[in-house]
Amino acid sequence: MEQNEKDPLIKVSSGSLSYRTEEVVTTNDETNAESSSWPPRKQNRSTETVAVGSLDVLSAKYESLDYEVCENHLFLEEERKTGYSFYIRKNVARWFIFLLIGVCTAILGVIIDITIDVLSHIKYGYIKDYIDHCLTEDCLYVPYLVWLGFNVGIVLIGSFLVAFVEPVAAGSGIPQVKCYLNGVNMPRLLRIKTLVVKVIGVISTVAGGLAGGKEGPMIHAGAVVAAGLSQGKSSSANKDFGFFYYFREDHEKRDFVSGGAAAGVAAAFGAPVGGVLFSLEEGSSFWNQSLTWRIFFASSVCTFTLNIILSSYHGHPGELNYYGLLNFGHFENLNYELFELLLFCFMGVIGGILGSVYTYVNYKLTVFRMRYIKARILKVLEACFVAAVSATVGLLMIYTLDDCKPLGQDPTEHPVQMYCRDNEYNSIAALWLQVPEASVRSLFHDPPASHDPWTLLLFMVIYFILSIWTYGLSVSAGIFIPTLLTGAAWGRVIGILIGYIYPNATWLDPGKYALIGAAAQLGGVVRMTISLTVILIEATGNITFGLPLMMTLMTAKWVGEFFCEGFYDVHIHLQAVPLLDWDPPPLSSNLFASEVMGYPVVVLPTIVKVSKLVEILSSETYCGFPVVDKITNESSQPSLLYSLMESGGKLRGLILRSQLLIILKNKLYIESDETWNHQNLGRNLFRHHYPRYPTIKDIYIPEEEMNFTIDLRPYMNPSPYTAQHVASLPRIFRLFRALGLRHLIIVNDSNDVIGMVTRKDLARYRVWRHLGHMGLEELKISDKI
Amino acid sequence: MEQNEKDPLIKVSSGSLSYRTEEVVTTNDETNAESSSWPPRKQNRSTETVAVGSLDVLSAKYESLDYEVCENHLFLEEERKTGYSFYIRKNVARWFIFLLIGVCTAILGVIIDITIDVLSHIKYGYIKDYIDHCLTEDCLYVPYLVWLGFNVGIVLIGSFLVAFVEPVAAGSGIPQVKCYLNGVNMPRLLRIKTLVVKVIGVISTVAGGLAGGKEGPMIHAGAVVAAGLSQGKSSSANKDFGFFYYFREDHEKRDFVSGGAAAGVAAAFGAPVGGVLFSLEEGSSFWNQSLTWRIFFASSVCTFTLNIILSSYHGHPGELNYYGLLNFGHFENLNYELFELLLFCFMGVIGGILGSVYTYVNYKLTVFRMRYIKARILKVLEACFVAAVSATVGLLMIYTLDDCKPLGQDPTEHPVQMYCRDNEYNSIAALWLQVPEASVRSLFHDPPASHDPWTLLLFMVIYFILSIWTYGLSVSAGIFIPTLLTGAAWGRVIGILIGYIYPNATWLDPGKYALIGAAAQLGGVVRMTISLTVILIEATGNITFGLPLMMTLMTAKWVGEFFCEGFYDVHIHLQAVPLLDWDPPPLSSNLFASEVMGYPVVVLPTIVKVSKLVEILSSETYCGFPVVDKITNESSQPSLLYSLMESGGKLRGLILRSQLLIILKNKLYIESDETWNHQNLGRNLFRHHYPRYPTIKDIYIPEEEMNFTIDLRPYMNPSPYTAQHVASLPRIFRLFRALGLRHLIIVNDSNDVIGMVTRKDLARYRVWRHLGHMGLEELKISDKI
User: Fold this and answer.
1) Phi, psi angle pair for B625, to nearest 5°
2) If DSSP states are collapsed to H, E and C, what string results for B367-432?
3) In this predicted structure, what is the pLDDT of residue A626?
4) Is B555 part of the contact surface with chain A (CB cutoff 8 Å)?
5) For residue A243, what is the enclosing H or E element?
6) Backbone torsion region of residue B505, taken as left when φ is above 0, otherwise alpha when ψ lies between -120 and 50, otherwise beta
């Protein structure tokens, strides 16, 4: 837990804020006119227990990543010793790892894709055969049982693994990756175990017929691959390969994870540029040219590798037509008339509304699950139940609706005749008896008369409900494909309806409207902007269609935001993650550091006794301690507490809890030969323990060593970023965001430490918007979630 | 001029650095081991006059833009008064301006394109007619004279305007826009006069047959359009329309200029995504999601508008096939075999080498011009001479080389028979008798046997030399098209040669190799990375070909960087612009703020006498003054000088020269009714004067007002960013770069002002690389350039 969140309830308790404001005023002449009366704030000052599923709480449990380079003595020593050749070598290693990330992510994607392909082929083949067979034999319950058996059996495996082995592998993983890239340390997100569960989980979801996609999980998988490859060791397997040790730092690891996520997008959609933009849009606070270039390299390599393998697998080696797992197929003639842009905007409005409905209902469902479906076995049962319902609904539609279309250019692999005449097939069965992304392709490319609008509308409603129900189950499943499918269905319906009104319109192509509908629905749900546009452009392979897609997405996003937040954001808030936005909340300039910061702060002297250090580390849970040189109060208390504006001593540096633990663990306070070796190891000693540090309880220190002293100066960061107590919230926010800080020390006029700002202190201020109104909101911080 | 560059020669004079280092050591125990001996530095400590054309000098004349929001009293007052409705209105206005930027840039692009089209059509039509006519009449000198007359006449207009009216309109404008986006205030870059000269200039360059393109100037034009539209006034025309006054700040203007540059790229290449990436790669230090989205909006709108107008102009309204000014044409089947990637890399190597040759020779030529071609009339004459040579060389090639190809699918508008048989045409005349971008298209798409490799090679060499000669003339001309044409020529030659070796290769398409050659050459010259790849992908309209393009560009860049810097960078260094790189120079952590900063600093007390203020502003040229509250030395001297580590008083804020001038100009020190009105105007008073502030000589203050005092606190920035004297160079650099600072105040342990860091202090440290070696270099700063 970070500095100053020791007792979060005190921080938000009634009156504490105004109390601080009054104190500040006395030191700051220019600003006392602006007390906290304006702009209007929605304050959550209640101290009662936080309700489950509340969106305005931050959990105290999430810690920040530390992107700051600690330029201490060891760092300078290493830099002097290694020189430019090491700098070059490190750069070469970086490129090599990005190459590996691209290749490995592609291979993983291929494994997922082919396994699903094979399983689905078997499953739908059997079902089709049984339907064809039983129609004459009157045993239609048999294909139902087969379908049920397949679905429930396969989903059981996946949901069991997710529920009992690694719950963090549930869902799409995009919100979690987004949080990680934003700078929040998401526990267990990047472990190998998570990857294994995710891969098996997503195969079981799609092959098991749930309304979930493999694209989100693919992005998560890419991120894990990147994190694993770059560290040259596996903490889970307790195996250290020794190479790439110099990348064992948060900021290096984050760069690789950005590349992995981008490669994941590239593999999922065949969109290397979209992948780069995804990583940037979701993650990077600081645009770095060479990093972006490397990320682009990884995603290009990934698309290329995937393309080569999949082309060979599908029997066209060298043709390179399989850019990604999700293939929108080839659009022949995607032209549009000027007035159609208005239609597309209108469809954007529908997408925004439907997306908000999706988000809101799923949110309510998630809260219900958080309250009542807590036991793991219940979660597994729910997943199996949904799988069974999916099969039931699908078969019911096939059995009851007679939507017959002539055979010919078969849009499906398993055409089912049902009650249709010879040379006809049941078009609703065609939609159900294939994986959802094949259905998306069908809706995009089927010839104009392939579908009946009312059946399609019914299909859309049912699939919409199923996909809402599916997300949040204890399975690995993304929302891209189900959302696209829903949108493509109603988009195509609109296209068909327009065809009824203007039967002679040459510009009309229901497939085009299906594409716009899919984009609108997706935009209304996820609310991504430029990256989503580029992903869709790349997935359609058509650059001309950029502007229509963009306008649709933009309308969908704006309309959606009028009603509620984006889907991923809602789930992030449900998890109470302290995510930092891109910009500080508007009109927050009259909030000052002294109001925002946490205090009192526990400080350490430059030379400290081992016993004292152990005492502080045992009693406090803070992650960073300012080091000061003028200790005014040499009492026996473990921590030195100062009230606001009182001197905490002149700031000398900042030392992290993890550094202190390693110092104690390796007895760096003893001047022995062995210690000397450790000191020669320098930063590598600290890297060795990254990212899982010992706890204070794991460290045994003999009684006689308790009186030793230790000089913190070689280890501490000698010039941490600071801000003055009069700095405004936007100013601190920009500093924090642009530099990826974890701790920002607040000093007074004479450079004495008076407080500390961490991520949660800033994430606590958020703008609320509701039907056109807006204001500043203060979130609660709770350590209960 | 900024704080601390008062006497630049002192700063770089021999020994001053080590002197400072010694002083620092006494206050910093941990770092005294690392004195300046390591890593190796190449120090330019000479005091002699700087040689013309030197690459390791920074001019003291360029000032920084100021992206920091000055959160003073007036700011808070405005924020409180205007509230959320104003915030929303401002956002709507932003979107509206980005829409306008897109539309207007497109219209400008269309005007340029159509004018060039018409002029070229007339010119080449006449020449073709005369050649056809004179071949029988034996008057071949007539078409030569016609060609000469056209070229020299048209170029004369453009070069006269550039030389005598607005020299900043010369060249492509990309280096200057890059500097502006980096944060350097380039004088006169964004004025309407510059735009007019640029537009006429680029038309005259291309229509006049010089080896220059219209793409670079298009980007510059977009930037000017954006700057003009966003400010709601024209300082040149002395007209204030009153709207958009709230965008009259450096950081707002920069955002719009990013959008304009992106729209320019979109118009030039039909590459909206490439445009966004260009703006980001060249400009943004801080990735901002909503800004990026707006930039994308502007570039999409721009492509769309341009497409609509050009499609109608070319007689296919509604077909929307003209994405940009430069159209690569439709590539049918851009597939490639795996082993071809190696070939592409090899071509990248050639591109890197040729690009370096291009850059180096042009650099030498530019230095020659800086020394000897100084008179404006000489510049005009040189441009006309090159125009004449271009015509001569072209006609000589047509007259002497008989490269006949059968007529049929005419790749050119004006096929010339010359000495060819009937039903044949002269293929070299086809290359010369059209605008260069049409030649690029010919080389990409002509059927395999259209060109003879040796003629093509000769053409390439001649065009290469012409294009080197052309850039740097006093005309507006970009390098994209000539570079692409050179590359396409040798690329096609390679394609043809491979065809000789493997006559049966089905994968072989000379057009594909022309494309790769063009990319390699361009990559070797400009060394852009992701944005160039995406621009080329969008211009070819083929996403599959992303990886080959990327690998070619990457190889070309790496090989090129082994030899010399990129073309734009060389020209930026020649202009001695203090450009900040993306990252701090490697291994510079042992340089500390106390070594980097400028000192002594001129500080102001919080309450200052008018006479003193006038005195300081008259005698000092600094742009920012720290405001302190404890003045230890109340002498009559205009400035308070402190030696290193001695207290300059407790830091209270930072006030800019421009603010002080406006305070004096508007007599804000007098408490009259009129002043009260001014104070009500608040920030608008300051915005009114943006960006051209009065000088101290323009301000008359009566003798009786000289004894008035003024309280600076309502106007100053109360919490400027600071760093401690022990902060390392990379730490300061990141702070500076990420936040777009202009002044960074350096304080000591007790928060007393001891120095100031500006852009030039950081830009002064640069890595030199030469054939595999690297080290840290300190540039000279000179006020002579």
Assistant:
1) -130, 125
2) HHHHHHCCCHHHHHHHHHHHHHHHHHHHHHHHHHCCCEEECCCCCCCCCCCCCCCCCEEEHHHHHH
3) 92
4) no
5) none
6) beta
Q: Does B529 sit within 8 Å of A289, measured CB to CB?
A: yes
Neighbour count for residue A413 (Cβ, 10 Å): 15
Contact (Cβ atoms closer than 8 angstroms) between residue A517 and residue A490 = yes
A673 or A481: which leads in pLDDT:
A481
Is the CB of A72 inside 8 Å of chain B's CB atoms? Answer: yes
Tell whether B120 is within 8 A of chain A (Cβ).
Answer: no
Q: What is the pLDDT of residue B672?
A: 60
| Cα B524 to Cα A440: distance, rounded to the nearest angstrom | 43
Single-letter code of the amino acid located at A61: K
- What residues of chain A lie within 8 A of the CB of B276, using their CB? 530
| Strand B404-406 relative to strand B424-426, pairing | antiparallel
Instruction: State the average pLDDT over residues B595-600.
Output: 86
Burial class (CB in 10 A: 0-12, 13-18, 19+), B694: middle
B299 CB within 8 Å of a chain A CB: no
- Predicted pLDDT at B620: 82
Report whether B262 contacts B276 (CB < 8 A): yes
Buried b or exposed e, range A657-695, using 16+ CB within 10 angstroms: bbbbbbbbbbbbbeeeeeeeebbeebbebbbebbbebee
| pLDDT band per the 50, 70, 90 thresholds, residue A216 | very high
Is there a contact between A308 and B338 if contact means CB atoms under 8 Å apart?
yes
| B714 neighbourhood in chain A, CB within 8 Å | 30
> Nearest-CA distance from A29 to chain B in Å?
9
pLDDT of residue A680: 60
- Residue of chain B whose alpha carbon sits nearest to that of A532: B293
User: Is B589 within 8 Å of A529 when comparing Cβ atoms?
Assistant: no
Q: Which A residues in the span 582-621 are in contact with B, Cβ-Cβ below 8 Å? A: 582-583, 586-587, 589-590
Which range (A341-350, A484-493, B286-295, B523-532) has the least confidence?
A: B286-295
Q: What is the distance between the alpha carbons of residues B211 and B205, in angstroms, rounded to a whole number?
A: 8
Q: What are B674-683's contacts with CB under 8 Å, separation 24+?
A: B682/B74, B682/B77, B682/B78, B683/B74, B683/B75, B683/B78
CB-based contact, B719 to chain A, within 8 Å: yes
Burial class (CB in 10 A: 0-12, 13-18, 19+), B561: middle
Give percent of chain B above pLDDT 70: 86
Asked if residue B15 has pLDDT above 80, the reply is no
B218 vs B156: CA distance, rounded Å: 21
Supply the pTM of this predicted model.
0.89
B90 touches chain A (CB under 8 A): no
B293 at interface of A, judged by CB pairs closer than 8 A? yes
Closest by CA to A242, choosing from A252, A232, A250, A234, is A232
Query: Which chain B positions have a beta carbon within 8 Å of A323's beta carbon?
Result: 543-544
Nearest CA in chain B to A282: B289
pLDDT score of B49 more than 70: no
Residue B681 sits at the chain A interface (C-beta within 8 Å): no
Cis omega (within 30 of 0) on the bond before A600?
yes
Nearest CA to B171 out of B196, B198, B191 is that of: B198
Instruction: Give the best residue of A286, A595, A654, A741 to mutate against chain B (max B CB count within 10 A).
Output: A286
The one-letter amino acid code at B2 reads E
CB contact under 8 A, B286 and A287: yes
Interface probe for A, chosen from B76, B94, B679 (most Cβ of A below 10 Å), is B76
The reply to whether residue B273 touches residue A726, judged by beta carbons under 8 angstroms, is no
Runs of H (alpha helix) within A502-604: 510-526, 530-540, 546-563, 567-574, 593-596
Within 10 Å of residue B76's Cβ, how many Cβ atoms?
Answer: 21
Q: Band of the pLDDT at B634, cuts 50, 70, 90? A: very low
Q: Please, how many CA atoms are within 13 Å of residue B484, restricted to the half-sphere of its CB?
A: 29
